[in-house]
Amino acid sequence: MSEEEMAAHASTLVLAGGETFATFLAATTYYLLKDGADSEAWNRLCAEVRGHYQSYDQTKAASAQKLPYLRAVIQEGLQIYPLGPQGFPRISPGTYIDGH
């Protein structure tokens, strides 16, 4: 496959996934703000992001991975509104009934 063909395929994949990702972002934002702009989750997320970055120019994907609450919000958003048809596996603690 030539470099031009790879670029064409990559742009198709990016365009095809854009609507799904935009919907995921809209749904995650909705759940963050459904209790109002003063919700605990929204305020905590804003405080973490604003405390880590001094300007927009500093925002990079690699440094955003160091923000634990942002990561948690993204992971929870993917649980509620997955990008794919099957979603992502969720690890939850086991349940014990009558000692078993």
From TrEMBL:
Cofactor(s) recorded in Swiss-Prot or TrEMBL: heme
Give the UniProt record's GO annotations in the biological process aspect: secondary metabolite biosynthetic process
Query: Which Gene Ontology molecular-function terms are recorded?
Result: heme binding; iron ion binding; monooxygenase activity; oxidoreductase activity, acting on paired donors, with incorporation or reduction of molecular oxygen
One matching Pfam family, short form? p450
Q: What top-level branch of life does the organism fall under?
A: Eukaryota
Its family? Belongs to the cytochrome P450 family.
- What protein does this entry describe? Cytochrome P450
